[in-house]
Amino acid sequence: MNSADVLILGGGSGGYACALRSAELGLSVILIDKDKLGGTCLHRGCIPTKALLHAAEVADSSRESENFGVKTSFEGIDMPKVNEYRDGVVARLYKGLQGLVKSRNVTFVEGEGTLIDPQTIEVNGVKYTGKNVVLATGSYAKSIPGLEISGPIMTSDQALNLDYVPKSVIVLGGGVIGVEFASVWRSFGADVTIVEGLPHLVPNEDEAVSKALERAYRKRGINFILGTKFASATHTDSGVDITLEDGKVISAELLLVAVGRGPNTADMGFEENGVAMERGWVLVNERLATNVPGIFAVGDITPGLQLAHRGFQHGIFVAEEIAGQNPVVIADINIPKVTYCEPEVASVGMNEAEARAAFGDSVNVYEYNLGGNGKSQILGTAGFIKLVSQKDGPVVGIHMVGSRVGEQIGEAQLIVNWEAYPEDVATLIHAHPTQNEAMGEAHLALAGKPLHAHA
Ligand SMILES: Cc1cc2nc3c(=O)[nH]c(=O)nc-3n(C[C@H](O)[C@H](O)[C@H](O)COP(=O)(O)OP(=O)(O)OC[C@H]3O[C@@H](n4cnc5c(N)ncnc54)[C@H](O)[C@@H]3O)c2cc1C
Asked: How far apart are the CA of 397 and the centre of ligand 1, in A?
């Protein structure tokens, strides 16, 4: 098949979700990828990193088991074995995804595609046409001008494939990817130093959450230098020296460059065919349409949050839009975010500063400390759930920090997206003893009837 209702370039989270939903809606689909179906998330992102983070949690549990009266000893990390476990997880999911795409009669074309006119993509000299074209070519790990990725200076792509645990690492960038790798390596026994140019770790989160993560990292022995910019790096016999703008030099075996991801859109014919772009990003309206009729863009190539579930939602949205179903727009601000370090960080909606900028004094804030939550005490974690609501109005943001709090994001995103009032949630029942109970307790308190809370 060389022509279809929907022609998709890129088979990552955004592209394959669009393919699966389009097929479900009875549309014919061609999906093109130059690499493995599943994209960054499955092969180089979410899934492999979370497998490493799980191995890290097991390492921490074995080290700390004495605290729970369990005698065991931590002997070390067998990195090839960790990688085998991780690859097994990825391989099972990859096989399942290939089966899904096949069973829905999506035509998968392997090869590098170029847009040659607004309805045609050429792959290895063969032309494929679509009534609608969806651009979904994702993102790549950026570096800093002058900082070449080679040898001990690496991005997450190379860091994921190490077959040993480095003795020491500098992580450039205290955002999501940086703090997750820092967490893994610390649990695996490395000396870790994070360098972040902004004043806080996870600087896009509520400031209270950033500060709590910094306290926890300090306790874990993860070093960080905040508000200081990187100046240069040099290879040494034992690894790498980096110089900061204040002249300070730090050395380590490896340097992980985690300074963000850029859109993967160069030399693919987008601009040549009139698609409006800005610094490489493909510009779309809120319905994910580009300025060229019939061309849509989804996922990481569009400006905004770079998350797999945003890609899934974009892909589904565009499929439904093409099928004429008039799907509902979800604003980026209400997309849940989880950082899977130890302790975890999870949030959805406006943080306190954003809510105050939007609503002035008409904002209520409540922080429920996990100290009052039975299950968190059993797990031995500190942290909190912070609610931000409009006065006499709905909850507009939920911000959490603590071990395993990522598991609470499901209810949090329902509350915010359904514009629930604290009183609505306070009447609902949360099972005891769970960490989820803390969500109920926080809303009870904000509704003026605290139970296990001193407020
Ligand atoms: C280390 C790391 C950890 C992450 N962890 C998480 C997480 O825990 N949770 C989360 O939500 N997100 C996470 N992400 C982000 C997530 O992986 C991305 O947001 C998501 O993969 C974006 O999906 P996408 O479809 O836009 O692009 P991608 O997944 O990058 O897919 C793009 C696809 O397009 C293909 N392609 C590109 N150009 C061409 C071409 N010319 N011809 C043919 N094919 C082409 C590529 O081969 C690729 O398969 C992580 C990312 C990284 C790097």
From this structure: 27
Give the CATH number of the domain where residue 282 resides.
3.50.50.60
Q: Is this prediction's pTM over 0.85?
A: yes
Nearest CA to ligand 1 atom 2: 45
Same-domain pairing of 135 and 273:
yes
Residues 293-340 have pLDDT tens digits of: 999 999 999 999 999 999 999 999 999 999 999 999 988 999 999 999
The reply to whether 212 and 117 lie within a common domain is no
The rounded Å distance from CA 186 to ligand 1 centre is 26
Domain extent at residue 293 = 3-141+262-332
Q: How far is the CA of 138 from the centre of ligand 1 (A)?
A: 5
Looking at the fold, whether 136 and 26 belong to one and the same domain comes out as yes
Residue 344: how many other CB atoms lie within 10 Å = 24
Question: How far is it, in rounded angstroms, from Cα 432 to Cα 384?
Answer: 17
**Is 454 among the catalytic positions?**
no
The model's pLDDT over 35-67, given as tens digits with 9 standing for 90+, comes to 999 999 999 999 999 999 999 999 999 999 999
Residue 366, domain CATH: 3.30.390.30
Q: Are residues 136 and 22 in the same domain?
A: yes
CB atoms within 10 A of CB 111: 14
CB of 14 closer than 6 A to ligand 1?
A: yes
Q: Which of 43, 54, 200, 432 is catalytic?
A: 432
Q: How far apart are CA 349 and CA 354, in angstroms?
A: 9
- Ligand 1 contact via 15 beta carbon (within 6 Å): yes
Q: Which residues contact 117 (CB under 8 A, 6 or more apart)?
A: 273
